[in-house]
Design brief:
The complex is a heterodimer of chains A (about 150) and B (about 775). Chain A is of the alpha+beta class. Chain A contains 5 helices and 5 strands; from the N terminus they run ββαβββαααα. A 5-stranded mixed sheet of chain A has the order 2-1-5-3-4, covered by helices on one side. The mean pLDDT of chain A is about 95. The chains are: A alpha+beta (about 150), B alpha+beta (about 775).
């Protein structure tokens, strides 16, 4: 089947097999930030934005992205760097494998919430597992990022 | 803190990890991001039986699938046994593996390797393979394994290289007895002797990046292995043993690694693509699914530990007797060594007159265990620390106080720790500080919240080691480049912990330059100096010491070349990081010019390597106090606040030390409350995805607070000891203690599930 997907602002038209997973489709098109961690929608590593909403690309067919806009971290390098610097300043990126999915979801969170509470942050990001950091450093990074953003306004 | 530590410019500073910005912006730096598209896909067919002989594999239909390049079974692979454990030769883990074996020993053991042009073809071929098994009765209860008539390894070519007490005809992977003093005599003199048995289950490291390896033949006809591994040099030896090819034909390197925690201290994926590439000459890769990583990998050893602990009425602990039964599963990777830590890194927390520590490690028909952060110490510390808390409860003594009375101090001889002296130990300060942090005196033992919930506190201590004494080798190569920047080449593997940065900090401190002035390369068996690898809490301590030594010697070389350029006596010249100068005349020559000179008409080698091993393995120490809320109706335990204070000697990078600690505690909370490898009666692993195997998410616990109370380890670089492993050791015993203080129940089997609490409370009522 032929699909057309807008990946990070660029239209891609391709004849795909019907069972192709969105994650594999995106990696095939150079979006290597999208990682597979579990195959069962539990870890959040494969989070991408589909028409602005975070989705798990490991559990979605590429066909479902036909006609949609997909954003991966490759297309959000400025935001990734801005927020990622706060993570890096904590040393909380550690192995880094979960970072792209986590940061995608953080970007999505801040598009929905101006000033999320601690509980809202934890709930929003509950599906983003990290085995290295124990989450505390990620939380410090989010809080410092929010404080700086507030100060800048 | 020593004055020398206070004045440091780079060491102790929270410097950003060198690779951090690449990682947070999602750059393609991991194995599967950097390999070419044209490589063969390698997968294995796995046994559906826990114990069986492969009678026949019918490959006919599978071979006809377009795109299938090769199907290999046990007849196609070398028949010399080897171990997949990444350990220094001669390996203590028995040689009990083949790449593929006629005898399959757990559900998940590989039966056939399939290589093909694409994943679809390989998946189809796997479905079409027809295997005829002779199904045998499995041995699944590790308590019945020793001297059972079912033998997991009946084969004659099974081999044990070291005297670890292994005997395959008794299902023994290892067995040993050690003691100091007359335990029975001292116990008979004690006012109280407590005997308790504790049980910890297998746990998965569950690093986010599953096992994966890419192989290709290079220009020189050598097998190149790019693998997500902690142990490049051990991989070279193990693949050489497995394939029966010379080590000179193999090169192993690692890209960025998506977490390891010990899992990648064992060869798990490597041998399969290595075999395929060696046989076909074509590049190939194998990427484990999460299911494979769950069912056919290298989890923590399940252990059952029986502790006898004797004390006087006043709380003075006098003797400890520990027997550990460890379940190594179908193969013996890390079996003989992990078990040792269950006693040698728990008992020395206390000064006792006598101890005894015996153990057996047995084979069973479940997935082989391996190395997981803590490496046996985690299990032993859960048992011993809980026994101490049970003793305190029986004697009606505050568990903080019983520790204050009995714990190890700086200068003590630790008889259960190979007689080593505790040269650096701030455990007393760690304990005092966590007591304050959690507000112990106001919160111990518990408060009834009036809504069916009880809040309570619990405490535990821990120790680990820093490298394996008299065995591990840490090495560093440093060289001067043009413009005067340096390259640091290591064989240790940064698996996210930040060792590339930490080692660069040590070099930068000595060479008085910015960390950015040190480029780090590692790890590559062709380029790196030999290093045992990143495990056993060794990198900061041992490779750090080698880096320090190399940098100190390179300073001398820099001065020598600078002096020659000025035509002065090198003995009278000095180096300040940017120039070599001659104080008497005021002459100097810049580091930039020295770098240029090193490449122009030069006879002084501006590159050197230092290696080191240590006669001691200085333990880091740690204390933790936790506040939990237990719902007595549902049995749910919520961790509200986890206070931890670590003595890792000098933290080389406080940010990274802190995040290591928080992460280790997070994993430990998982082990204490959620995580458990379970099997069906047929030996099929039940928790084969993250649906069933519950890693802690960020909503699953409250806050973790970490502080440092540093001692100064005289043998470590800038006083440093290790931190990577100890941090997982306290949650099981601390949370168990808190649950007791809330409910009166000591849960002696991990994890502490709500069912165990509710059933225990019902039993107590009756």
């Amino acid at each position: 089947m032929i699909i057309t997907v807008n990946i990070n602002g660029k239209n891609v038209t391709e004849d795909i097999e019907a069972d192709l997973i969105l994650l594999d489709f995106l990696r095939k098109h150079g979006c290597y930030s999208v990682k597979r961690g579990c195959e069962t929608s539990n870890c959040g590593l494969c989070t991408v934005l589909m028409d602005e909403k975070p989705v798990l690309s490991c559990s979605m067919l590429a066909a479902k992205a036909d006609g949609k806009n997909i954003m991966t971290l490759e297309g959000l390098q400025k935001e990734a760097e801005e927020f990622g610097t706060f993570v890096a300043n904590q040393g909380a990126e550690q192995c880094g494998f979960c970072n792209p999915g986590f940061i995608m979801n953080v970007i999505a969170m801040f598009r929905e919430y101006e000033n999320p509470t601690d509980e809202e942050i934890k709930e929003y990001l509950a599906g983003n597992l990290c085995r290295c950091s124990g989450y505390e450093g990620q939380m410090r990074a989010i809080k410092k990022f929010m404080a700086e953003r507030k100060g800048a306004k | 803190m020593k004055d020398t530590v206070k004045n440091l410019k780079t060491v102790t500073k929270p410097i950003m990890k060198k690779d951090a910005m690449s990682l947070v912006t999602g750059k393609p730096v991991y194995m599967d991001d950097v390999v070419p598209d044209n490589c063969l896909i390698v997968k294995v067919l796995r046994s559906q039986h826990a114990n069986a002989m492969v009678e026949e594999v019918n490959k006919k239909a599978a071979s006809m699938v377009p795109g299938v390049v090769g199907i290999y079974t046990w007849e196609d692979v070398p028949q010399e046994r080897f171990t997949m454990a990444g350990q220094t030769y001669p390996e203590p883990s028995p040689y009990d593996r083949l790449i593929l074996d006629k005898h399959v020993r757990y559900v998940g053991d590989p039966v056939a390797i399939v290589a093909g042009e694409n994943e679809k073809a390989v998946d189809k071929a796997l479905k079409l393979l027809k295997v005829k098994y002779e199904v045998l009765e499995p041995l699944l209860d590790f308590r019945k394994a020793k001297d059972n008539e079912i033998l997991v390894h009946p084969e004659d070519n099974w081999k044990s290289l070291c005297p670890v007490g292994a005997d395959n005809k008794r299902n023994l992977c290892a067995s040993e007895k050690t003691s100091h003093g007359d335990v029975e005599k001292v116990l008979s003199e004690c006012d109280v002797v407590l005997e308790r048995t504790y049980h910890t289950k297998a746990n998965q490291q569950a690093m986010m990046e599953t096992f994966r390896t890419y192989c290709y033949m290079d220009t020189y006809g050598r097998l190149n292995i790019l693998s997500s591994t902690q142990i490049v040099f051990h991989v070279r030896r193990i693949v050489s043993n497995a394939l029966g090819i010379p080590k000179s034909k193999i090169r192993v390197s690692k890209p960025r690694i998506g977490g390891g925690f010990g899992a990648k201290q064992t060869v798990v994926a490597e041998v399969f693509p290595a075999f395929v590439t060696w046989v076909t000459g074509r590049p190939s890769k194998m990427i484990f699914t999460r299911e494979e990583s769950q069912i056919a990998s290298t989890p923590r050893h399940e252990m059952e530990m029986t502790v006898r602990i004797g004390a006087n009425k006043d709380g003075k602990i006098r003797a400890i007797d520990l027997y550990t039964l460890s379940n190594t599963g179908a193969y013996g990777e890390h079996g003989p060594t992990t078990v040792g830590l269950s006693g040698h890194k728990s008992i020395p927390l206390y000064n006792v007159e006598a101890f005894r520590f015996d153990y057996d490690v047995v084979y069973t028909n479940v997935m082989s265990a391996g190395a997981y952060r803590g490496y046996g110490a985690t299990q032993g510390i859960f048992a011993l620390e809980t026994a101490v808390n049970e003793l305190a409860a029986k004697l009606n003594i505050d568990p903080m106080k019983i520790r204050e009375m009995n714990m190890v101090h700086e200068g003590d001889i630790m008889y259960a720790y190979y007689g080593e002296k505790s040269n650096s130990c701030a455990l007393d300060r760690c304990l005092a500080r966590v007591k304050e942090m959690i507000d112990w005196d106001n919160k111990y033992p518990c408060r009834d919240m009036g809504n069916g919930k009880v809040r309570s506190v619990g405490v535990a201590m821990a120790m680990q080691g820093s490298s394996i004494s008299n065995l591990d080798v840490g090495s560093a190569t440093l060289k001067v480049n043009d413009d005067g920047f340096y390259t640091l080449i290591i064989g240790a593997a940064d698996m996210g912990t930040g060792c590339d940065t930490i080692l660069a900090q040590i070099a930068a401190e000595v060479l008085e330059c910015d960390v950015d002035n040190i480029a780090v390369l590692g790890a590559d068996t062709d380029a790196s100096p030999y290093d045992s690898g990143s495990y056993a809490s060794s990198t900061t301590y041992l490779t750090g010491k080698a880096t320090y030594d190399a940098a100190m010697k390179l300073r001398e070389k820099i001065i020598e070349l600078g002096a020659e350029m000025m035509g002065e006596d090198k003995e009278k010249c000095e180096f300040d990081g940017s120039k070599v100068f001659y104080p008497e005349s005021g002459k100097d020559v810049s580091m930039v010019d020295i770098g240029t000179k090193s490449m122009l008409n030069n006879n002084i080698t501006m590159e050197l390597t230092e290696s080191c091993s240590s006669p001691v393995s200085p333990p880091p120490f740690m204390a933790a106090a936790v506040e939990v809320e237990v719902d007595k109706e549902t049995g749910t335990v919520d961790v509200l606040d986890y206070a931890a204070v670590v003595d890792c000697g000098t933290p080389i990078n406080e940010n990274l030390a802190r995040v290591q600690t928080e992460g280790g505690i997070g994993q430990g909370i998982g082990m204490a409350l959620f995580e458990e490898v379970q099997y069906t009666e047929e030996g099929r692993m039940m928790n084969n995805s993250f649906m069933q195997y519950k890693l802690p998410a960020r909503v699953d616990y409250g806050k973790i607070r970490v502080e440092f109370e540093s001692s100064y380890e005289p043998t470590g670089p800038y006083g440093a000891k290790s931190i990577g492993e100890i941090v997982i050791d306290t949650p099981c015993p601390a949370i168990t203690d808190a649950v007791y203080n809330a409910t009166g129940l000591f849960i002696r089997e991990m994890p502490i599930t709500p069912e165990k609490i509710v059933m225990g409370l019902i039993e107590n009522e009756n």
